[in-house]
Structure formats: C-alpha cells, structure tokens
Write a structure and sequence with these properties.
Distance between the termini: 56 Å
Strand content: 15-25%
CATH architecture of the largest domain: 3-Layer(aba) Sandwich
Largest sheet: 9 strands, mixed
Helix content: 25-40%
Shape: elongated
CATH class of the largest domain: Alpha Beta
Number of strands: 24
CATH topology of the largest domain: Rossmann fold
Structural class: alpha/beta
Low-confidence stretches: 1-15, 363-370
CATH superfamily of the largest domain: HUPs
Strand order of the largest sheet: 8-7-6-9-5-1-2-4-11
Mean pLDDT: 80
Length: about 550
C-alpha cells in the first residue's frame, strides 16, 4: 500500500499500531479455524525474523468463543470487529472493513488462507490498497538482504518454483496453501505460544456500501466434514465416464468413512460441486489413503496430493501419469473395477469386521442417484407448488409435467430452462441429465431397430435397458455389415461361428475365421466385412456403461 499525502501518527489511531504481520482468520468451520492456527505459526516465524508484532484479524458477530480459541497462541494481539453486519460473510462488506483496518494499521505483511474465501477476498482487498498479491504460496521466508517477504509459488506440479518479492507497495500480500512451510532459516522461530492482547476496532459502517442483500441460507450437512481433514479420500475424474457412475464413489467413500473429491473435468461436467475440486486451484488433501479413479494425473491435480500417505490409482491407460504417484496402481476400466471393489468391501465388512447388512446396505447409501424427473419433482414440492401450478406457469398441459416427473418424457432444452427459471436453480446439471436421458432413449430405439433387421437376432430378449447385450449377426457374402464405421461407448466382443470376417478397428485390420474371437474398445471406430463367398455368422456381445 502506497503512502502518499500526509501521514497520520499511530497515536492518532487508538488501538492499532503501524506495521506488523497480519493474518486474516477464517471462522466459518472448526477445520478452517484450525487452518488459521497453522497459518499463524508460519506468520510468527516471519514476524520474529523482522522483529515485528503479529496480529490476527477477526471479523464477525459474537466473537467471544473465537477470541478464547485463538488467545493462547503465537499472536501478539487480536484485532477484531464485532458487528451485526459482519455476522455472515459478504465479500463487499468484508473487503470494506479490511480496507479500513489496513488504512488505520498499515500492516507490513498480510496473509490469507488459500481457500474459497481467501481467493475471493484477498485480490479485492489488494486492488483497493493498490498493492500486489501472490497467490497459492507453498513457502514463505524473509530475504536477509532487504527484509522483504519471499513468496514461493510452484508451477507444473512442483517441477518449477518461482520466488516473488513486493519491493515497493505495502502490505506485502499472499494467499497461503494449507501445506505451506517456512524457509529453513525461520523454522526455529515459529509457533511460540503467548497470550494475545485483545483490541476491538469500531466497525466503519457509514463508509461501507452494500449492494447485495442476504435473503437467507441453508447449511450444507457436509460442510462440517472437509476434504482436508479426511483420513480417506476417494477422487474421481473424467475417466469415471458418467454422472451415475460418479455417484457410486459416494458409496465407496461412505463404506471407508471417507470423503469424495474430484478433478476439474468432473466438476465442469456437473457430477459434483466445485467446492470438492482437488487441485492447485482447489483443495489440497493429506489423507492416510487416497483412491483415484479415472484420473490421468495432470500436474494441476498431483500438486495437491503430494502429502497423501498412500495413493491407489485406477486407470485403464498403463502410461497414465497418476501411476508415478501411486503406491498401488491398477490398470483397468473403472466401470468394471469400482462395482467389484464395492461388492468385495461390503462382503469383507460383514464377514470379517462384524458389520450388519443394514449398516453396509442402508437405504439410500451414498448420494442418491435421482432421475431428471425425480429432481424436478423434488424442486416443485420444495417450492410448495402443485403440478397444475407448474403447468400453468410454464404454459404446458398438466399431463406433460406429470410425464416428465415420472421419467416418461424428456423435456426440450427450452422447457428445461423455463423449469430452472421457475424453480430458481442452475439449469446446467439438468441439461446434462437430459442429454443422458436422450442418449438412453436412443440406445433403446437403436436396440429395437437392430432386432427388426434379419441380420440381428438378439440372444438377450428384453435387454433394451441393460448394459450387457448379445446378438447373433449374419453378414451376406462379400458384403459390409454396414457402409459406415461403428463407434460407441463401452466394449465389444466378437466370436466367429461360421465363415470369415474382416474387422477394422482404427487402423488395424483383423482377418478372422471360425472359432476365433476379438475384444476391443467400442469407442474406437470399427467396421465389419465378409470377404468370403458364403454367409458369415458371428456372436457379438456389447457392453455399454
């Protein structure tokens, strides 16, 4: 923060002294308070190195319990604002309050946790103070030559490190990752305990404008269970394949008494909320056991799992980078391994650990896998609306709403957007589910259409909705099975009953005779042809997730 104009003396600002190292305290959960304590330990090493006082800054309402929590610790003083307008975190209000505090106290260094709140609040405050900000620091220290804060950040999965200085502007600001450390020269000076002096600072209400009005809030029951504190974390990535399969990770996590995390692609697909993203710009986890499913091992992800004690990686690509970080690597398909792992774990818990079937197979275990219709129905009932009310608001027949809620029909994109507007929710997850529902319907229609063709004879009647289906296929002499290449999700197995067949899978051509078989990934474009002068008969088994 620059210091133009007339400088106000510290004596003219009762309760706050110039300079010092400040730490912003996050009071929203017990885990975040604990993380604030760890950041205070780091800050105390910096303060001791510079011979500066260490201050903890708290904003909120009815702060007495929090003051007691932090009073016996490394801080020299606790600067706090206790006011009704600070009871709930609002970015605009908190930024204004901190800007006022910094104008009064002129801190030399100001540190924030590198979490959702810190990443939102710190850059806005830095802009107000016209100073710089170093984000996601993994190490902090003091340069012995000029007493500047040395802020170390990583890139490319901790393969490259950069050291950042703020030579002119004040305060020197940084957001600090949970696993951050002090430079070795400062380690011995950190974490010394003392009794902090309490200093209440008036809330500058008149100078803070609020454009956002808080209407209410509902507490997420999972908020008290954090990824950072979990002993077991189950993480899923793009390779899990679908939202429905991703939900089974909750089943596994609950059997292991763990938590579920995800990579950025899984979050962007709306399979899980953004708050559970693990990565350099998300959460950093340090569990005893980390299980990863369908995660390639990009550096953005692996940078956040370095402190995990044991890592188990499951990926069908034997060259996936995640195996370089895994204590146990399993090369295989998630859609086969995950259900089998859950089945065997349930058996083990019952037979060897004395769990009851009711504990292992409780009703609604894990996150419920709800269809689109069921979710829309729950939202309607939560709003206190009758079906007729919804139909009238959307200007559609009541029967249409009933069919959608019973999953007998899939709404159009435009109708889904109107549903979301009526219920005041984000439409993106609904659009993703509708796409999946349409894909399921196309699969059923495709199955029925195939079995109407003489060349397809189903060996699994009524398998329209099943993941595993078998056909007996006939290809006329010197004919292609179809002129186009096939390509679909899942796997395919072909067995030659009679005659010959040429199967092109990608760029590879396989010439097969009676009694020979081939198994391949069905997502690779493939084509079947009978090169002989007699009919060819095949057994084809399809597995689709």
């Amino acid at each position: 923060m620059g210091r133009p104009g007339k400088k106000t003396r510290a004596a003219d600002r009762p309760g706050i002294e110039d300079g010092g190292v400040w730490v912003f305290g996050d009071l929203r959960t017990e885990a975040l308070k604990k993380a604030t304590g760890s950041l205070l330990d780091i800050a105390s090493g910096l303060a001791a190195k510079r011979s500066l006082p260490l201050s903890l800054v708290l904003l909120g309402r009815n702060l007495d319990p929090h003051l007691e929590f932090f009073r016996q610790g490394p801080a020299d003083r606790i600067l706090f604002m206790d006011h009704p307008r600070l009871e709930n975190y609002r970015q605009e209000t908190y930024t204004g309050a901190l800007a006022h505090l910094c104008g009064e106290g002129r801190p030399e260094i100001f540190l924030f946790l590198s979490n959702d709140c810190g990443r939102e609040l710190a850059p806005r405050l830095a802009a107000r103070l016209n100073t710089g900000l170093c984000a996601d620091c993994i190490r902090l220290g003091i340069d012995p030559e000029n007493d500047l804060l040395v802020q170390t950040v990583s890139a490319f999965g901790d393969q490259i490190y950069g050291k950042i200085l703020t030579p002119e502007r004040r305060p020197q600001m940084a957001t600090v990752r949970p696993d951050a450390t002090l430079d070795n020269s400062d380690d011995l000076q950190a974490g010394q305990k003392k009794t902090a002096e309490l200093r209440k600072v008036p809330f500058p209400g008149a100078s803070i404008k609020e454009r956002v009005k808080r209407l209410g809030a509902e507490k997420d029951p999972d908020m008290d269970r954090t990824l950072e504190d979990a002993r077991v974390v189950v993480c899923g990535g793009r390779g899990v394949g679908s939202e429905a399969r991703f939900q089974t990770l909750w089943d596994l996590a609950r059997l292991l008494e763990g938590e579920v995390g995800a990579t950025r692609p899984a979050v962007h697909a709306h399979w899980i909320e953004e708050d559970r993203m693990v990565g350099q710009t998300g959460r950093t986890v340090t569990p005893e056991v980390l299980l990863t499913f369908g995660i390639s091992g990009a550096t953005q992800f692996t940078a956040a799992i370095q402190q995990s004690r044991y890592v188990v990686g499951v990926n069908r690509d034997p060259k996936a980078s995640i195996f370089a970080y895994s204590d146990l690597g399993i090369v295989g398909d998630v859609k086969q391994i995950l259900p089998e792992l859950i089945r065997k774990l349930r058996t083990l818990l019952i037979e060897q650990y004395g769990k009851s079937p009711e504990e292992v197979y409780p009703e609604g275990l894990g996150k419920p896998i709800l269809g689109l219709g069921k979710r829309l129905k729950d939202l309607r009932e939560h709003q206190g609306l009758e079906i007729s009310d919804t139909a009238r608001a959307l200007e559609v027949p009541t029967r249409d709403v009933e069919d959608i809620e019973e999953n007998r029909a899939t709404p159009s994109v435009s109708l889904l957007l109107r549903f979301a507007q009526l219920y005041r929710v984000d439409p993106a997850p609904f659009l993703t589910m509708a796409d999946g529902s349409r894909a399921d319907r196309r699969r059923v229609e495709g199955f029925k259409k195939r079995t109407e063709n003489y060349s397809y004879r189903t060996l699994t009647p009524g398998a329209e909705q099943k993941h595993l289906r078998a056909f007996r296929i006939t290809i006329d002499p010197r004919r292609d099975h179809k002129m186009i290449e096939y390509k679909h999700e899942g796997e395919e197995f072909v067995y030659v009953l009679r005659g010959e067949v040429e199967i092109k899978v990608g760029e590879d051509l396989h010439a097969m005779k009676r009694g020979e078989s081939l198994h391949f990934e069905a997502s690779i474009p493939h084509h079947l042809r009978n090169p002989s002068a007699q009919k060819t008969e095949l057994i084809v088994v399809l597995y689709t997730p």
